[in-house]
Amino acid sequence: MKFPKTFSLKEIAQIIDCDFVGDENFSVLGMNEIHVVEPGDIVFVDHPKYYDKALQSAATIILINKEVDCPEGKALLISTDPFRDFNKLTQYFKPFQVSTSAISPTATIGSNTVIQPNCCIGNHVQIGSNCLIHANVTIYDHCVIGDNVVIQSGTIIGADAFYYKKRPEGFDQLLSGGRVVIENHVGIGALCTIDRGVTGDTTIGAGTKIDNQVHVGHDTIIGKKCLIAAQTGIAGCVVIEDEVTLWGQVGTTSGITIGSKAVVMGQTGVTKSIEGGKTYFGTPIEESREKLKQLANIKRIPEILDRIK
User: Fold this and answer.
1) What was the pLDDT predicted at 292?
2) Which residues of 227-259 are buried (b: 16+ CB within 10 A; e: fewer)?
3) pTM of the entire structure?
4) Residues near 169 by beta carbon (within 8 Å), at least 6 away in sequence
5) Mean pLDDT, the chain cut into blocks of 10 residues (309 residues total)
6) Domain check: are 145 and 22 in the same one?
7) Are residue 158 and residue 278 in the same domain, yes or no?
């Protein structure tokens, strides 16, 4: 998430009421999660296991719960609770805005686009030309829909990320200030849910087609001309490269990459990153031919046991 203007380190520290290390005029341009940070961004870290990763990341402002040596060219925000203060910044720069009508007057909708009854189009949504949005679709604030996109009934675009911190009194949600960006010529089936990024974008690439009842987690990037069949569940922060096919009821873990033109057979659990150009099956996932050989050999176990009696 980029801020509307450049803020100083001191100004950010005042917003969240914390101490800082570095030049008070140090430039702060935005805030992001660690996998998408750029120079000028704030990243938060609240566990010693990840201190080095955050301090050595591309982020130049680290929101941290310990006084440490500040890397050259960077600045620190010292917080007793970085998770809480990251949420404060999200609330400050992307506060929840109440909708006052089914289609917000701040939404922009292109020519020849049809929006069927009972849809909710949020604040500052952008929808391109020649789209068809079927009944009972909800598109949350700030989402971007390209040209020639079809979204079937009951789909929800831009719900909050499933991202929580466990505390003694329960689970504390990391607030979502990102967007969903759907490029041109995308088709999305009925009853799908596509979560927005925490601070960045969840992206569906041009020409991709998504079947009914598919879930796409926060900050996931789906490439161009992919096919995703029904009841597939894609976790957060996944990268799916171009022309990938995921058949029905595929599930993935978070933070992995599925290479270009990979084919994943139905009911496979994608537990790790996989190369493109190959076909995969099973849980744990393997190339399909190898997995099918293993299953065939398992069927032979009784025969083998009879031979050795």
Assistant:
1) 84
2) bbbbbbbbbbbbbbbbbbbbbbbbbbeeebbbb
3) 0.93
4) none
5) 96 97 97 93 95 96 95 96 97 94 97 98 98 98 98 98 96 96 98 97 98 98 98 98 98 97 97 97 91 84 79
6) no
7) yes
Provide the token pair at 295: 């299953």
CA distance 13 to 34: 20
Residue 135 domain boundaries: 108-292
Distance CA 201, CA 36 (A): 10
Q: Which helix (H) or strand (E) holds 31?
A: strand 27-31
Catalytic residue among 134, 185, 215, 218: 218
The domain tally of the chain equals 2
84 shares its domain with 112: no
Residues 189-207 pLDDT 10s = 999 999 999 999 999 999 9
> Residue 239 contacts by C-beta under 8 Å, 6 or more apart in sequence?
220, 221, 256, 257, 258
C-alpha distances in Å from residue 263, one per residue of 18, 70, 186, 223, 233 = 49, 45, 19, 14, 15
The neighbouring-strand residues paired with 77 are 20, 63
pLDDT at 108: 98
- Our answer to whether residue 35 is catalytic in this structure is no
Is residue 275 within 8 A of residue 258, CB to CB? The reply is no
C-alpha separations of 280 from 213, 220, 272 in Å: 22, 20, 12
Q: Which of 72, 91, 89, 94 is nearest to 28 (CA)?
A: 89
The confidence score (pLDDT) of residue 293 equals 85
Asked whether residue 273 falls in the same domain as residue 173, the answer is: yes
Predicted local confidence at residue 169, as pLDDT = 94
The whole-number pLDDT of residue 301 equals 83
